[in-house]
Amino acid sequence: MKINMKQTALLIALFGVLSFICGVIAENKKPSAGTAVQGKDSIICNYPSNPYVALGYISVVFLILSSVAGYLSISYPYKKRSIPYSALFRTKTMVVFFNIAWLTSGLAVALLLWPTVTEQLHVSKKVHHNLSYDCPTAKTGLIGGGAFVSLDSCLFWLICLMLASNAREDYFDEIEDSSRGESTQVIDMSVRDLSVASNGYQLILSNLHWILITAQGQSFSD
Fold first, then answer.
1. Cβ of 62: how many Cβ atoms within 10 Å?
2. Which residues 6+ apart lie within 8 Å of 22 measured at CB?
3. According to the 3-state scheme, what is the secondary structure of the chain?
4. Which residues, 6 or more positions from 1, have their beta carbon under 8 angstroms from its beta carbon?
5. 12: which of 74, 119, 178, 205 is 20 to 30 A away, CA to CA?
6. pLDDT the model gives residue 188
């Protein structure tokens, strides 16, 4: 199956949007706090059932898929024609956006994982011996912010893909131009070689003609 840039762009966008949607839904479903139940020398925290943790991890998975697809799409040999990294990262714009895409992806992973793991720890550890414990939840706004940063990283990967497309066109245009110049040079050299050979052949014939005339003159004189 042949893959083109439109398909990879749609794949990057799909994973990025799904990561964003899961993160936003998780932020809206997060409970404000758990219910503290007084036990014997302990506090038991009861949290309402919610998909916060599951959606958080799903958002992280889609973010990683979007970033991996973005990275692979840049160097993928479309139409079985690869391009060296030196030509791909020849411009400063490509280098800058490539680094920004990785930074935003890493920041988005951190913002999504931090509250997700924190909430999972809160839910799994329900018994606390601190009688003043108020059964908190993960910090509000982190996973929602991570969702928006995840969407930003997706957009940066799409920008990198467009820059890679321009770099590929320039690279292959230069190769075609250089090959045309070499073929023209070869043709010119061939014509020049034929001209030199023809001139040499005519010179040899003239010398032979002169030698024959000289030899005939000598024979007549004898």
1. 23
2. 55, 56, 58, 59, 62, 147
3. CCCCHHHHHHHHHHHHHHHHHHHHHHHHHCCCCCEEEEECCEEEEECCCCCHHHHHHHHHHHHHHHHHHHHHHHHCCHHHCCCCHHHHCCCHHHHHHHHHHHHHHHHHHHHHHHHHHHHHHHHHCCEECCCCCCCCCCCCCHHHHHHHHHHHHHHHHHHHHHHHHHHHHHHHHHHHHHHHHHHHHHHHHHHHHHHHHHHHHHHHHHHHHHHHHHHHHHHHHC
4. none
5. 119
6. 43
Q: Is the pTM of the predicted complex or chain greater than 0.70?
A: yes
Whose CA is closest to 109, among 55, 53, 63?
A: 63
Give the integer Cα–Cα distance in Å for 108 and 105: 5
17: its two tokens: 């949007």
Express each pLDDT in 29-64 by its tens digit. 888 887 778 777 788 888 888 899 999 999 999 999
In whole angstroms, how far apart are CA 25 and each of 47, 145, 178, 218?
18, 12, 54, 113
Q: Residue 186: what pLDDT?
A: 37
**Which pLDDT value is given to residue 146?**
93
Pick out the chain residues at pLDDT < 70: 1, 179-222
